[in-house]
Amino acid sequence: MKTLINYYTIMKTQKSMNRVYPMILLLVFTVFLMGCMNNEKTVYDKAEDIPVSQEMIAELTSPPHVPTPVGARKAKKLIVKMEILEEEGEMTDGVKYVYWTFGGTVPGSFIRTRVGDEVEFHLQNHPDNKLPHNIDLHAVTGPGGGAESSFVAPGHEKVFSFKTLNPGLYVYHCATAPVGMHIANGMYGLILVEPEGGLPPVDKEYYIMQGDFYTKGANGERGLQPFDMQKAVDEKADYVVFNGKVGALTGDNAITAKVGETVRLFVGNGGPNLVSSFHVIGEIFDKVHVEGGDMINENVQTTLVPAGGAAIVEFRVDVPGTFILVDHSIFRAFNKGALGMLKVEGEEDTKIYSGEIRDDIYLPEGPGIQSMPTTDEIVESEIPAKSFEEQMEYGKQTYMQTCFACHQAEGQGVPNAFPPLAKSDYLNADVDRAIGVVLHGLTGEITVNGEKYNSVMTRQTLSPDEVANVLTYVYNSWGNSKKVVTKEMVMKVKNQK
Amino acid sequence: MKTQAFRLLLVLLVFQSVVFAQSEGMVFIEGSRYIPLYGRDSTVVEVKDFEMDIYPVTNSEYMDFVTKYPKWQKSKALKLFTDKSYLANWKNDLEFKDSEHPNSPVTYVSWFAAKDYCECQGKRLPTVDEWEYVAMADQTTKDARVKPSYNEQILAWYEAPRSNENSIGQNPKNVWGVHDLHGLVWEWTMDFNSVLITGESRKDVDKDSNLFCGSAAVNATDLMNYAAFMRYAIRGSLKAKYSMKNLGFRCVKDTNKIN
Q: Which cofactor does it need (chain A) (predicted)?
């Protein structure tokens, strides 16, 4: 209204001056009225009719973070600048891999849009890269999902634009020959198209994407591992991981929330081959946007995320603790890396979950030492440690892969379940016994630092070198007796039987 | 220089039985028929006898060229024939950056520049068919494409960073006596974009279904194809004025028969 009054004032003062003014006033008034109408909520039948007003540079985020929700903002011209980088990264401790990435991470940067946005997409192929790339966004309506218009040589940038017509969570990926290889090397990510007005607000939002990887060496084999096309064709993955590497969402990298908060996970699956059975241990999804679309299913335990597909899951966290995110095709989680953590802090609620109430002894007849089925041949690690420092380094890697889950990061163990290795009298008393435990497993009651434990440790599938390294690491950490264990000592114990 | 002369001598000795005049720094390639991964009709193509440069063109050789033909100097090259990154690793018209080695392959050159370079030497750029024909050899076999080791070596290069900074001649020569077709830089070819790759690789698969029949006929596996796929992909992504960090070239020549 202010503008209008201003114009009236101008009119009054200049009335006598010119006859053209009323005409201008009329024009201004009409424009003003139209402006008013635009402020009211206009419902467009078709998303392509939604007008865009301003330009905006899109906020892009690395996983597990997502950009700010669109909220009530109007449709805009959204400029997305995505840089492709081919770079070496770490798949897991000691294992290197050359990733091809959108924006320097696997999965690529998260793009957040709303229905009606006009996305101007700049695909930049870094000059150091060796290969041409392109991008197929499943959110695009058009040939190849943009792939055809975005095929870009190293040192060049391609620009194309598209309008977001359908709300949902969509995968994007590279589609340059050989397509499978580009995806297998990490070229995928998620683009979210929010409905008008945005998704309902929640407390925490995270970005998680699963992918399977195929390396020339077996899982855990050290060094720079090249991509293995034959394994990819055979769909025999060495690694199945969340966010590009083993441990991207565990330990210090775990995602967090507080009791009472609602968590929304944007879950994607880049593939190239495997379908994910996404599950959070100890939680039930209150809501799942099935396959990332409009349909909402409630009270879901495990949701299927197809390769090249996505889902939005939401749940309120009611009790504190660490909740494990897995692909419930469970060997992938515990043996190939598809494992993440959500750490929830806050007050216990024993009405919902009591915690352990009692620990009674239950001994059925004929317990035996559990052993994992293995072949007798355990592959020697290719590069034996040459020095104490290397023994410590490799030993730590083995520890983190094999022992960490039970004995914990600082060797503290878990009370009443897994004995500590830190300052452990049981460990330090007898080195041959310790070697034997790693080689053959241990079951039954033992006393460690005055506490009784009655549990089962399975025999470990480690080579003599690895046993020597991991025990050297354990003995030289956390206040233990600083013994150095050699391969010869391990062989001696091994050959005693 | 001494070693190069020695190499040349060796090459000459090896090929002395051949009754063709051997050009300096080139080796004789005996033509034949073969099935390329992509062909015009994905059928057998014929390659006539020709000679090929043993090494890709180096920085210092290119320096000589731009000294002699100033129109190809960094500041003088026509924008029609080069893009902004032309000789991006050069300080000025006649000096490359300190990080560059004289004996590394020249890169950041456009197709126009490469073509003119060859023509100024009385040579030409190889065709895709010629290039692929020589490049399918390994150290012992003329057609090594079915060997897993051959493909693995090529693919290892894709993962090796900054290989363009290496000197020429470090990769073993193939059975023809040619070095560095794989493992150093991509190379321009005369008809680099004659295979129509649209940028939508999956569509290309449909369009060119012959390709798969053709390659199936030579018992091709994915293992065999995927190294080559990437070469065709990179060619398809190029335009003649483009320059790239990992893209150089070498020349070939039709053979002169001695009567």
A: Cu(2+); Cu(+)
Work out how many domains chain A is built from and give that number.
3
**ipTM value for the complex:** 0.74
Min distance B122 CA to chain A CA atoms (Å): 30
Q: Do A128 and B199 touch (CB under 8 A)?
A: no
CB neighbours of residue A195 within 10 Å? 15
For residue A389, give the H/E element and its range.
Answer: helix A388-398
Mean predicted confidence (pLDDT) in A90-107: 93
Give the model's pLDDT for residue B4.
Answer: 64
Under 8 Å between Cβ of B187 and B248:
yes
Provide the number of CB pairs (under 8 Å) joining chain A to chain B.
101
Q: Which residue has the tokens 């950490």?
A: A477
For residue A254, the enclosing domain spans 205-345
Minimum-distance CB partner of B237 among A151, A226, A233:
A151
A216 and A327 assigned to the same domain: yes
CB of A406 within 8 A of CB of A414?
yes
Q: Is A174 assigned a ligand-binding role in the annotation?
A: yes
What CATH number is attached to the domain comprising A315? 2.60.40.420
List the CATH number of the domain containing B54: 3.90.1580
Residue A472 confidence (pLDDT): 93
- Interface contact B155-A131, CB threshold 8 A: no
Half-sphere exposure of B209 (CA within 13 A, CB side): 1
Q: Structure pTM?
A: 0.72
- Asked whether the predicted pLDDT for residue A475 surpasses 80, the reply is yes
